[in-house]
Amino acid sequence: MGAISPPPSSWMSEDNKSCTPVNRMAQQIRPRTFPNILYDILNNAESMEYSDIVSFLPHGRAFIICDSANFEELVIPRFFGHKSLKSFGE
User: What is the value of pTM for the model shown?
Assistant: First the structure.
């Protein structure tokens, strides 16, 4: 058998103490654009206890606002600084 080569340097953590894959894209700060904010809301709806208000559809290609009143009162102001559901289209 041949020798086992070390993992590529892109897999090394910053302190080089472990061989954990490092996702360089995840380390960059994403701009706070409407799609990014909406994705963060939907992706974290369960942990932020908004899943009964807004969530991805089961196939993951669209979302649904289940409770528009609470979406306007709780979610939109927290992430967008206003209470206008119209900004999400009709």
Answer: 0.60
For residues 51 and 61, what is the distance between their CA atoms, to the nearest angstrom? 16
Q: Find how far residue 7's CA is from the centre of its chain.
A: 29
**Cα three-residue angle 44-86-29, rounded to 5 degrees:** 40
- Architecture of the domain defined by 31-88: Orthogonal Bundle (1.10)
Residue type present at position 20: T
| Contact (CB, 8 A) for 53 and 74 | yes
pLDDT attached to residue 82 = 83
CA distance 32 to 34: 7
Which segments of the chain are extended strands (E)? Answer: 54-56, 63-65
